[in-house]
Specification:
The protein has about 325 residues and is an alpha/beta fold. The protein has one domain (about 15-315): TIM Barrel (Alpha-Beta Barrel), CATH 3.20.20.330. It has helices spanning about 20-30, 45-65, 80-85, 90-110, 140-155, 170-185, 205-215, 230-235, 260-265, 275-285, 300-315; strands spanning about 15, 70-75, 120-125, 160-165, 185-190, 220-225, 245-250, 290-295. α2 runs parallel beside α4.
Length: about 325
């Protein structure tokens, strides 16, 4: 049974950490092979599951040590029909791997959660296509039908909510929200942003949030930003307009490089963790309602430790 599905504690305030760049950490630091960036594929064997368990433990420990909440984001970003088919998964096998991924998150919550560090389990949903390039954009109805399968799997698990990460366009976001609403799961949408603070479709973040809310009756629990450096979206959210209040989470890149440059880079750009943490502290001072904080490409436990240290101090009376 889910624990927080009826009321997400992060909506009440307080800092909630998430993890860093799962796939980049596993590939560049742990030297693991991830075909199609599919972290869920590691769970096909015990050693892979243990690598994931070790990864999440490091972040849950940071949250506990600092008395902060934590969102356990399942390693299922690629565990949807098209990507799993490339790896030979049947529908039954895909259902099982999503279930097992959430079960791993539940195991970690049972181990680490305290009264001061509530831990929310999120079923992670990724885009049908690439997280940088919208490619062929589905209609809202097509997106709802496509993502209903994976979101339906999560309904039967302990997942408290669904978080769709690296979403590049509003029709897909709208479809995901509608699928989650039908399933009865709270949903969060996290948009990929480019160096100009806009979605890869050139739509502004304001336009994207307003469009999804208008099409779905504002049922999205909150919105997030991912896969962009803090300097890329500073200007985009430098406003007091109401739509900014719908933004509660940030999972930024460690690197200032564009997505095209990151794709061509032979080595991992992990930026400067100290500077990264300071930028999050500044973000929190300017937008204290943003309280779900983690990393994306190139970030690891060092970046999250700095976020925890700086943001905890910034939020202290």
């Amino acid at each position: 049974m889910s624990k927080y599905r009826d009321h997400l504690p992060q909506l009440d305030g307080g800092i909630f950490l998430t993890d860093g760049g799962l796939e980049t950490t596993l590939i560049f630091h742990d030297k693991l092979e991830l075909p199609y960036f599919a972290a869920f594929h590691l769970m096909k064997e015990g050693a892979g599951t243990e690598a994931l368990r070790k990864y999440y433990r490091s972040y849950a420990s940071i949250a506990c040590a600092n008395g902060l909440g934590f969102v356990l984001e399942s390693p299922t970003w690629r565990a949807n029909p098209d990507w799993s088919e490339k790896l030979g998964y049947s529908k039954a096998a895909l259902s099982e791997v999503n279930r097992v991924a959430v079960a791993l998150m539940r195991e970690l919550r049972e181990q680490f959660e305290t009264a001061h560090s509530p831990m929310v389990i999120s079923g992670c949903v990724g885009p049908r296509g690439d997280g940088y390039d919208p490619g062929q954009i589905m209609s809202e109805a097509e997106a709802e039908a496509y993502h209903s399968q994976q979101i339906g799997f999560f309904r039967e698990t302990d997942a408290d909510l669904v978080t769709a990460i690296t979403i590049t366009n509003t029709p897909e976001a709208i479809g995901i929200v509608r699928a989650a609403r039908t399933t009865g799961l709270p949903v969060v949408i996290s948009f990929t942003l480019e160096t100009d603070g806009c979605l890869p479709t050139r739509q502004s973040l304001e336009e994207a949030i307003d469009a999804v809310d208008a099409a779905t009756g504002k049922v999205t629990a909150y919105y997030m930003i991912n896969c962009a450096h803090p300097t890329h979206f500073d200007t985009a959210i430098a406003t007091s307009q109401p739509w900014v209040r719908r933004l509660r989470g940030v999972r930024a890149n460690a690197s200032r490089l564009s997505h095209a440059e990151l794709n061509e880079a032979p080595d991992l750009d992990d930026g400067n963790p100290l500077e990264f943490g300071a930028q999050y502290g500044d973000l929190l001072r300017r937008h204290p309602h943003i309280n779900v904080l983690g990393g994306c490409c190139g970030t690891d436990h060092r970046h999250i430790e700095e976020i925890a240290r700086v943001c905890k101090a910034a939020s202290s009376p």
